Amino acid sequence: MTNIDGKVVAITGASSGIGEATARHLAERGAAVVLGARRVDRLQTIVDDIRASGGRADLRAVDVTQRADLVAFVDHGVETFGRVDVLVSNAGIAKIGPMEDLDVDAWSAMIDVNVSGVLNGIAAAMPVFRRQGHGHLVTTVSTSGLKIVPTQAVYAGTKNAVRTLLEGLRQESTDGMLRTTSINPGYVRTELADSVDDPETREAVRRSMEHFAIAPEAVARAIAFAIEQPADVEIGDITVRPTVQG
Ligand code: NDP
Questions:
Q1: Regions of the chain short of the pLDDT cut 50
Q2: Which of 155, 157, 159, 241 is the catalytic position?
Q3: What pLDDT score was predicted for residue 198?
Q4: Domain ranges, residue 217
Q5: How far is the CA of 78 from the centre of ligand 1 (A)?
Q6: Which pLDDT does position 208 carry in this prediction?
Q7: Which atom of ligand 1 is nearest to the CA of 141?
Q8: Which end of the chain is less packed: N or C, by CB atoms within 10 Å?
Q9: Does the C-beta of 47 come closer than 6 Å to ligand 1?
Q10: If 0-12 CB within 10 Å is exposed, 13-18 middle and 19+ buried, where does residue 167 land?
Q11: Separation of 175 CA from ligand 1 center, angstroms?
């Protein structure tokens, strides 16, 4: 018996990468997991795998830019497993590139998914957490927000916005009901480079991924560490990066 066993964890961006690894890892540790993303076929395969191994899992199509989708997603978790103890707001895109390209559509898309997507999750989960008397918000932020490098300014800005939002919410919720955790991954081997439109930047990210990125399971273990703490212990920030990353 661990403090993960029996918890209900809803995860956005669970169709690949960090979200998928987190769903599989937490399910192995005894959590009931609710997977959300747009690629339902991918979610179904993961849910089938988890169930075949004796785990508890369900899914729902979610576009995090749509507030109603997040409400339906969290409600689905409550209807299926009785409550939602943790929301992992993990869905994100990295349409990075030089700022001077002025790719305003890419900036808007990153703000919509990375910032509004997390706010939509907070708006959907908080009423449920209040009703239950407890809840835990985990967000996948980034080392990009800690060190600003060329081509990543807008992406880093969205991630720093999320860090700020979570800290603000934490400051307002000190009655013991809410735990908040920001996870800062460095380079992690996932499909994230696919969301980069600028060919040169995409190749640079892919090269970094191939050469020194760590496995998404490393981030999943960090998320599990935050979740498994006793209710009076909040892990605020965790940075998980390749040992060789500058
Ligand atoms: P992936 O591209 O593998 O996963 C991204 C996930 O987000 C997918 O499941 C995708 O699902 C989902 N997603 C994207 N847009 C939406 C949307 N509008 N609605 C719902 N889901 C959406 O990349 P990662 O696993 O790497 O990314 C996960 C998080 O980790 C992101 O927030 C990313 O910024 C962050 N991160 C990643 C790092 C890395 O090096 N990989 C480093 C630091 C942070 P679908 O397309 O099916 O909707």
A1: 1
A2: 155
A3: 86
A4: 8-240
A5: 24
A6: 85
A7: 44
A8: N
A9: no
A10: middle
A11: 32
Q: Is residue 113 part of a domain?
A: yes
User: 22: domain CATH number?
Assistant: 3.40.50.720
CA of 52 to the centre of ligand 1 (A): 25
Specify the 3-state DSSP secondary structure of 238.
strand
Residue nearest to atom 48 of ligand 1 (CA): 38
Q: State whether the beta carbon of 94 lies less than 6 angstroms from ligand 1.
A: yes
d(CA 165, CA 175) in angstroms, rounded, equals 18
Pure H helices in 100-239: 104-110, 117-132, 153-172, 199-212, 216-227
User: Are the beta carbons of 94 and 159 closer than 8 angstroms?
Assistant: no
Q: Ligand 1 centroid to 239 CA: how many Å? A: 17
To the query of whether residue 155 is one of the catalytic residues in this protein, the response is yes
d(CA 27, CA 4): 9
Task: Confirm or reject: Cβ of 120 under 6 Å from ligand 1.
Answer: no
Chain-centre distance of CA 133, in angstroms? 23
| Predicted complex ipTM exceeds 0.95 | yes
Count of domains for the chain: 1
Please report whether residue 245 resides in a domain.
no
90 belongs to a structural domain: yes
pTM passes above 0.90:
yes
Q: Is residue 67 one of the residues assigned to a domain? A: yes
| Phi, psi at 148, each rounded to 5° | -90, 120
